[in-house]
Amino acid sequence: MRRRAFAIASFLALALLLVFLVLPIVAIFTHTSPGELIDALGDHSARQALRLSFETAAIAMGVIVVVGTPASYLLATRDFGGRAAVLTLIELPLIVPPAVAGLALLATFGPNGILGSFVSDTGIELVFQTAGVVVALTFVASPYYVRQAVAAFSAVPTSMLEASEQLGARPGRTLLSVAVPTARPGLLAGFSLALGRALGEFGATLMFAGSFPGTTQTAPLAIFAEFNTDFTGALALAAILIALAGALLLSVKLVAGREALGFSP
Amino acid sequence: MRPTRAAATVAIVLSATCAGGCSGSDQGQLRVSAAASLRPAFDDYAANAFPDDQIQQSFAGSDQLAAQIVQGARPDVFASANTQYPEELYARGLLEKPVVFARNRLVLAVPADSGIRSVADVAEPGVSVVIGNPSVPIGAYTHKILARLPASEGSAILANVRSQEPDVSSIVGKLTQGAADAAFVYVTDVRATAGSVRAIPLPDSLQPEVAYGIGVLSHAPDPELARRYVQGLEPGGSGVRYLRQAGFLPPG
Questions:
Q1: Is pLDDT at A265 greater than 80 in this prediction?
Q2: Separation of alpha carbons B197 and B161, rounded Å
C-alpha cells in the first residue's frame, strides 16, 4: 500500500515536472504559425543575430574543448593538494548570476579592470566587440563541460591508462587515443550542456559586450530587444533558436547514446 | 493515512504562503511599473509618502514595461518616460486616462575624468558611444538629438555607437564601468551617480520634448490607493518634492 502511494506520488511529480518544463517551450510554437517562422527566418536582423549566436558559440566551444579537456584530464587522473578547491573554483561560474558574471568580466577585462591595461596593451578589444561575446560565453559555459569531463575521465579505468603508458604511449597520446574515446559519451554530454548554455547566454553578454546588431547582439539579446516592439517577431526568433539548439543537442545526444550502447563508429 | 497527511501538509504550506502575501485590508498593496530613470524619485516617494503601505516598484525600460502590460502583466500604476506608451495602453483600454507629471532634459554624459568637452568631441573617430535601443524612450530621444545635429556630425556619432542598451540604468552602468566614453542620458541619471559621471549640457535647440506620462491600470484591485499614488505626483502633491530633488522639471 505504502509502496503504491509512493509510486503514484513519484509519477505525479514526474508528470508535473514534465508539463512545467515542456509547456512554455510548446507555447512558443503554438503562438507562431509556420508561415511566421519562415517570415522571421527571412528577416535580415534575425538571421544576423542567429548567425552571430552560432559563430560565437562555436568559437567558445572550441576554446572550451581545447583548454578544458586536458585540464579535466589532469583533475581526474592526478591527486594533488587543493584539488577539491580547484574543482570548486572552476564550478563557481555555475552559481554566479549572469549579470554578476558580466560585472565580474568588466571588473577583470574592462578598461578599468584589473587586467584592463594589459588587455589594451595587447591591442585586443573585448568590450563592445564580438570577441567580448566569446569571452562571456566561454566564462559561463566552460564549467558545464569541465564538470562532466572530470566525471567522465574519472570513470575511465586506471588500468587502461597505465597499460597504454606501459606500451610506450606518451601521456598526450594516451589522452587522445585511450581516455577521450572511452570517456566520449560523458564528454559529449558535457559539450551539449555547455553549448546549450552558450547559445542561451544573455546577461553576461549584455553587461560585458553590450548589444549591437551584427557585432554583439546574439539571438537572446535580439529576442529581448524585439520583445518590446514586435512580440510575434521575438517569438518566431525564439522558436527558431529552440528548434536549432534542440536539433544540435539531440544530435549530440544521439551520438553519445549510440556510443554508450556500443555502436561506436 | 498517508494521503491525508500529505493533504494536511499542502494546506499548511498554502496557509503559510498566504500569511506573507494575502494580508488583510489594513495595509494597502500597490505595484508600480516605472521607467528606470524614475527610480531615485519613486523610491523616496514610496518610502516617505506611503510608509504604511506595501509598495512594490519595478523599474525597467518603459517599452519593456508597456510590452509586459500588453502581454498580460497587471501592475496597478504605469509610469513611462514618454507619453506615447501610456496613450497606447489607454487606447487599448488597459490604462485609465494618463496624465503628464514631469519633464526631463537630456545631457551628454561622460566619466568624471573624461577629456570630452562637447558634442563635437564625441563625433571624433574612436570614441565609444552608448545609446538606448530605438524602442526605449531614451533611445528615441537620442535619435531626435542626432537628427538635429549637422548631418556629418550626427552620422559620425551614430558610427561611434558601440551598444544599444535596454534602459538608462544599463547605459549609465557602461559609463561608470569605463566601458563607454560617452552616452546620451537624462540629466536626472547623472545626478543619481553622485559624481562618477559628468554631464555636458545640450542646448535648447537640440532638446527633444521629454514628458513623463503616468496612469492607473484599468481594473486595478485597489484603485483608491493607485489614484492617490498618481495624484501625489501631480502639481501640489506630496511626491513633487522628490521629483524636484531628483532633478525632474514640472509638467507645465
A1: no
A2: 18
In A73-225 the beta strands, taken as DSSP E runs, fall at none
Q: Which helix (H) or strand (E) holds B110?
A: strand B106-111
Strand partners, B212: B102
Residues in chain A: 265
The pLDDT tens digits of the residues spanning A72-103 come to 999 999 888 889 899 999 999 888 888 899 98
Helix (H) or strand (E) holding B188: helix B187-192
What is the chain B residue with the closest CA to A104?
B177
Q: Could you say which residues from 151 to 180 on chain A have a Cβ atom under 8 Å away from some Cβ of chain B?
A: none
> DSSP code of B95?
B
Looking up cell 522639471 gives: B249
Burial B8-31 (b: 16+ CB within 10 A, else e): eeeeeeeeeeeeeeeeeeeebbbb
- Identify the structural domains of chain B with CATH numbers, from first to last: 28-103+210-246 (3.40.190.10), 106-206 (3.40.190.10)
How many alpha carbons lie under 13 Å from residue A86 in its C-beta half-sphere?
Answer: 13
Q: How many Å apart are CA B24 and CA B19, to the nearest integer?
A: 10
Q: Which domains does chain A have, with CATH numbers?
A: 40-260 (1.10.3720.10)
Distance CA A124, CA A118 (A): 9
CA distance B112 to chain A (A): 13
Distance CA B64, CA A178 (A): 53
Strands lying side by side in the sheet with B161-165: B161-165, B129-132, B182-186, B106-111, B197-201
Task: Give the residues across from B31 on adjacent strands.
Answer: B56
Q: Is the CA virtual torsion B184, B187, B193, B196 positive or negative? A: positive
Give the pLDDT of residue B21.
42
Residue (of A170, A173, A138) closest to A61 by Cα position: A138
The β-bridge partners of B185 are B107
- DSSP label at B56? E
Closest residue of A to B71, CA-based? A231
Residues 6+ apart with CB under 8 A from B146: B154, B157, B158
Mean pLDDT value across residues A224-232: 79
Ramachandran region of residue B103, left (φ > 0), alpha (ψ -120 to 50) or beta?
Answer: beta
- pTM across the whole model: 0.80
Instruction: Write out residues 197-216 of A within 8 Å (CB-CB) of B.
Output: 206-207, 209-213, 215-216
- Cβ neighbours around A247 below 10 Å, total: 10
Report the distance separating Cα B22 and Cα B185, nearest Å.
Answer: 39
Q: Which three cell numbers stand for residue B2?
A: 498517508
Please give the angle made by the CA atoms of B67, B69 and B70, to the nearest 5 degrees: 65
ipTM of model: 0.71
Whether residue B11 has pLDDT greater than 60: no
* Per-residue pLDDT, A228: 73
Kindly state the average pLDDT of the residues A190-204.
91
